[in-house]
Specification:
heterodimer, A: mainly alpha, B: mainly alpha
Chain lengths: 118, 137
């Protein structure tokens, strides 16, 4: 079993962080759509889509070395970040249900990737 | 309850988005298995032609664009912190589709992981409905 290098872990965490910012910009841009779908081309959405798709670059770089079963569940770090960004930027409440749901999803991703190795 | 169904719309949109995302990943996997010539800068059209002939890969990219569009529509009305973690359902679909298309096998770990992710998403959905009924929407 090869150990997962710290650089891979950092790259996947970076990808999750970039993706979570992508989601924030998508949300900001989506808010402008109430004026109709002609607002689909606004800079928030463009930044959001670029960040969201760009996050796959460090993700794939990170996955090159290291174990998938370690790296794969780290995607949920992005969900945790998004919980905080939503609180800061959109004043959405952090509830026990949201924290519990994130815990279940994280546990689920760990199990799924463990199953992939078995 | 018709109002609850209507206000759960963003959740269903994100769930639809995860189905698209999973289909995109399966199509891209098919596309990646499709033989492609190496990119030769002196003959760029050979590569472009091969790319356009790779229907699975193109389908995968189209599905990805559809995913982004559905996510944006969902975010228009829903809470980001509620909707973003639902994207984890993509892993559930990818695992199920891989069993069918790539003969991957189910095991206890994968099955319990899938059950845990689904319960997490269900918890988010239920919390969303409760929050709305408290707010009287």
């Amino acid at each position: 079993m090869t150990a997962t290098p710290v650089s891979s872990i950092l790259l996947v965490l970076l990808a999750s962080l970039i993706g979570s910012f992508g989601a924030v910009f998508l949300k900001l841009g989506a808010g402008k759509l109430s004026g109709g779908l002609k607002h689909l081309l606004n800079w928030h959405l463009l930044v959001g889509i670029s960040l969201y798709m760009g996050s796959s670059i460090p993700f794939v770089m990170g996955l090159k070395h290291g174990e998938l079963s370690v790296l794969y569940p780290m995607v949920s770090a992005g969900y945790v970040c998004t919980l905080f960004w939503s609180r800061i930027f959109f004043h959405e409440p952090i509830t026990r249900a949201k924290i519990g749901a994130l815990g279940l999803i994280l546990a689920g991703l760990i199990c799924i990737s463990a199953g992939g190795r078995a | 309850m018709p109002t609850a169904t209507r206000s759960n719309k963003p959740i269903y949109l994100v769930l639809g988005c995860t189905v698209f995302a999973a289909a995109a990943q399966v199509l891209m996997k098919f596309g990646a298995n499709h033989p492609m010539p190496a990119f030769d800068p002196s003959q760029p059209f050979v590569f472009v032609k091969a790319l356009l002939g790779n229907i699975s890969l193109l389908g995968g990219y189209t599905m990805s664009a559809g995913t982004a569009f559905l996510l944006i529509l969902a975010l228009r009305d829903g809470e980001l912190s509620m909707l973003y973690p639902i994207i984890a359902m993509t892993y559930v679909w990818v695992n199920l589709l891989s069993m069918y298309f790539f003969d991957e096998h189910m095991n206890v770990w994968k099955a319990s992981g899938i059950a845990l992710v689904i319960s997490g998403v269900a918890l988010l959905g239920r919390a969303g409905s409760k929050a709305r009924s408290r707010a009287g929407r």
